[in-house]
Design a protein that fits this description.
It contains 24 helices and 9 strands. It is α/β, with parallel strands linked by helices.
Length: about 650
């Protein structure tokens, strides 16, 4: 049996006791350049490239097969073909923007602004709020509309206020000016300055990313009248009409950031309508730039790729075309992907893995010392109600209502967004679809959904180094096993632990147990606050932003390791390639996080990403006594953590 460990990546000059990430991945990092079209590159990206190539093969085969017009195969082929038709796109130039910009020019007051954002929302253009439909956190047997803060062109509210982003703000204003000039919008320099001033005002009303992690603070349930009271002067009925919804859609609406709604109402009343026209024009151009002529595409990439992430080159056009098809018709492609690339025995093996991980978590919850009996009973009940989903959905999405017109790229993009808006709105008032997936099978990722209390593992992640049916169990448990444990752990992290087994947001903890949990979480925040990634030295991790994912990683490691022990059935683990089973488990974990990032991208992710950097995720094993024992880590070693400072939650 092969170990599943890549020996060519291992740097024998670095001891695992000093730096597990560098030991397992050092030679790979030293010898593998980051591709010029990427801000970071690692295991996930390599697998995504493989999945992307597989999807390209499927799409191009479909496109070349002359499918019957109107079939889903024809829609896939036609959408991809019109994106790849550069000659037509180039000839059109800025013409596809004309109708939207004429509408913007006709805006004459706040009601028109709000109505326009609704109409534009159906076309994928960012407005003042971002609506989405999901199960009600307080009543998971029904759907409601959520309103998320929006309105900004920079990645986050912090970019408008923090000194470290001052150069990005300057570059942003210049970028907005150039884009508006390409669209022939009048006074592009003045308009860009006004857009920046307005967005700075809106950003001041945004909540930061740490605050937005709190599911209680971000839950304010109102009806249409309550929303009007919260944001006086905002014509919500006009917004809904533009979006294609009736007023009944806001019979129950969850406002995630009430301060933002109040801020928007004040800005609509006080800012000149000409400024709002500039802002609307900018967001029309920005949203549609990737589907316009080369001048727009290049300028858009120059700021959002080169300036913000340090990426030297744009992705090839076919890759961007595949991405568009994935966004618009993802499950149609996914059905073919599963047939070709996900054998039934892989799903069977995953079912066994998930079963062992759930059993390991059950044992851990039964014994964890800081949790009292009342909370423990609730936790075990929740674990017993987990729903695992593996590989692909049981029911595939129906794309009959989506019209794709050959040769009409931007029109197809707009229709695809409108199709999804209508699909989401149609959920309101109906039964909750517990079979729905929120990732396609060809996505290299996984997720936990607290509202449905489910853990979901798409087919594309179920391949080496995460999962190899022919490899040693230790490496599989260190890879996909720990990922499974990570997703289960999200059900009990700082956010997920506030939902019960039915998906209801309610406090099922005793005060004492919540305090004990919070003390452990705070210790993890403090620990990561002091850490720097090797990709951005001098910049520390935001422990409060990343605490949920860090809890997930620790849970995945501890539960994954226990599940590996369970899988042995009491038999001793074999020694393979000179490594014990426990050592191979931790090496398997570390090679999952193999990768590197450009400095600009690493700094951007530190500000925005709730996940810690890859090297720090690999080295999170320093909290486990099992790791210290596996490698005989001693005081003075780089990975040593005093026992009293090791954070263990599960």
């Amino acid at each position: 049996m092969r170990s599943g460990i890549d020996p060519a990546a291992v740097d024998p000059a670095v001891r695992p006791q000093d730096d597990l990430f560098a030991h397992v991945n050092g030679r790979w990092v030293a010898s593998t350049p980051i591709p010029p079209d990427r801000g970071r590159y690692g295991t996930f990206d390599i697998l995504r490239e493989t999945a992307e190539a597989h999807v390209r093969e499927i799409i191009e085969e479909v496109a070349a097969g002359s499918p019957e017009p109107g079939t889903v195969a024809a829609k896939v082929g036609d959408l991809y073909s019109c994106f790849m038709d550069e000659e037509t796109v180039e000839a059109l130039g800025a013409a596809p923007l004309a109708a939207d910009l004429e509408r913007v020019a006709a805006v004459s007051g706040p009601a028109d602004v709000v109505a326009a954002t609704g109409t534009f929302g159906r076309a994928g253009i960012l407005g003042l709020v971002l609506p989405f439909v999901n199960t009600d956190d307080r009543d998971p047997d029904r759907y409601v509309v959520y309103l998320e803060q929006a309105g900004l062109g920079l990645p986050d509210e912090s970019y408008y206020r923090e000194e470290q982003h001052a150069d990005k703000r300057t570059a942003y204003v210049a970028h907005v000016e150039r884009m508006l000039a390409l669209a022939s919008w009048p006074d592009p320099a003045g308009a860009a300055a006004r857009v920046m001033a307005l967005e700075t005002r809106l950003a001041a009303g945004h909540w930061d990313k740490v605050t937005n992690r709190d599911p209680v603070k971000t839950y304010t349930l109102v009806d249409l009248a309550g929303l009007a009271e919260m944001g006086p002067g905002v014509d919500w009925e006009a917004y809904l009409a533009g979006l294609g919804a009736t007023p009944a859609a806001f019979d129950a609406v969850v406002v995630r950031q009430p301060d933002h709604v109040r801020s928007v109402a004040a800005a609509l009343a006080e800012e000149p309508v000409a400024t709002w026209r500039d802002w609307l024009a900018w967001h029309v151009v920005h949203a549609h730039a990737p589907y316009l002529s080369a001048a727009f595409v290049e300028e858009n990439f120059d700021f959002y790729g080169r300036t913000l992430s340090g990426v030297p080159e744009m992705r090839e056009r076919w890759k961007r075309g595949v991405g568009l098809v994935e966004e618009s018709l993802g499950e149609a492609v996914g059905q073919l992907y599963v047939e070709r690339h996900f054998p039934p025995h892989a799903k069977d093996a995953m079912v066994e893995l998930v079963g062992n991980l759930v059993e390991a978590f059950r044992r851990s919850l039964s014994e964890v010392p800081w949790m009292g009996d009342d909370t423990r009973r609730e936790a075990l009940t929740k674990l017993g109600q987990f729903t695992p989903k593996i590989g692909y959905p049981q029911q595939w999405r129906d794309y009959t209502a989506l019209e794709i017109v050959p040769g009409d790229l931007l029109g197809n993009v707009r229709r695809a967004v409108a199709f999804e808006v209508d699909r989401q709105l149609a959920k309101l008032g109906g039964p909750v679809d517990r079979d729905e997936w929120f990732m396609t099978p060809q996505t290299v990722n996984a997720y936990y959904n607290p509202g449905l209390n489910e853990i979901v593992f798409p087919a594309a992640i179920l391949q080496p180094p995460f999962f190899d049916v022919e490899a040693d169990a230790a490496v599989n448990y260190g890879g996909i096993g720990a990922v499974i444990g990570h997703e289960i752990g999200h059900g009990f992290d700082d956010q997920g632990s506030q939902f019960d087994g039915t998906g209801t947001l309610r406090n099922w903890w005793t005060d004492e147990d919540r305090a004990a949990f919070q003390a452990l979480a705070d210790a993890l925040v403090t620990q990561f606050d002091e850490l720097e990634t090797r990709d951005a030295p001098g910049h520390k991790v935001n422990g409060a932003l990343t605490v949920g994912e860090n809890i997930g990683d620790l849970g995945g490691l501890t539960i994954g390791h226990l599940a590996y022990r369970i899988s042995l059935g009491g038999d001793p683990a074999p020694v393979i390639d000179g490594r014990t089973g426990d050592q191979r488990f931790f090496v398997g974990w570390a090679q999952v996080w193999r990768g590197a990032a450009r400095r600009a991208e690493a700094e951007r992710l530190l500000a925005l990403d709730p996940h810690s950097p890859m090297d720090l995720r690999a080295n999170a094993v320093r909290n486990l006594t099992e790791f210290h024992e596996a490698f005989d880590v001693a005081p003075g070693d780089g990975m040593w953590v005093d026992p009293q400072h090791r954070v263990r939650i599960f």
